[in-house]
Amino acid sequence: MSLIMINGNQVNLKEQPSIKAADGNASQSNYILVWTSERLMPPQMDALANKGVIIHEYVSKHTCRCGYERTNLAMIQGLPYVA
């Protein structure tokens, strides 16, 4: 997950660790990156949608840029397919 493309801009997450919400809080943005262990299947997408996640686009093989208006990430981070 180190190299992704967002709005035509290449972002290296290894060089910008502050992008990751290590504290489990998404209060500073209405967007999150969801890194998964495999490409999402429709039931997994539905489960994310039920938790308030709106998938906008894949930005790398297993990373999606998503809309998310809540602040607590624990219920997303706890899913078995979210890395």
Keywords:
alpha+beta, 83 residues, 3-stranded antiparallel sheet, two-stranded antiparallel ribbon, 5 strands, 2 helices
Largest sheet: spatial strand order: 3-5-4
Helix content: 10-25%
Number of helices: 2
Query: How would you describe the oligomerization state of the chains in this entry?
Result: single chain
Average of pLDDT: 82
Number of strands: 5
Order of secondary-structure elements: EEEHEEH
Measure the end-to-end span: 10 Å
- The low-pLDDT segments are none
Biggest sheet record: 3 strands, antiparallel
Task: Give a quick precis of the structure.
By secondary structure, the protein is of the alpha+beta class.
Explain what you see:
It is a single chain. The protein has 83 residues and is of the alpha+beta class. It has a domain at 21-77. Helix content is 16%, strand content 30%. The chain contains two helices and five strands. The strands form two sheets. It has a three-stranded antiparallel β-sheet with strand order 3-5-4, with helices on one face. A two-stranded antiparallel sheet has the order 1-2. The longest helix has 9 residues, at 42-50.
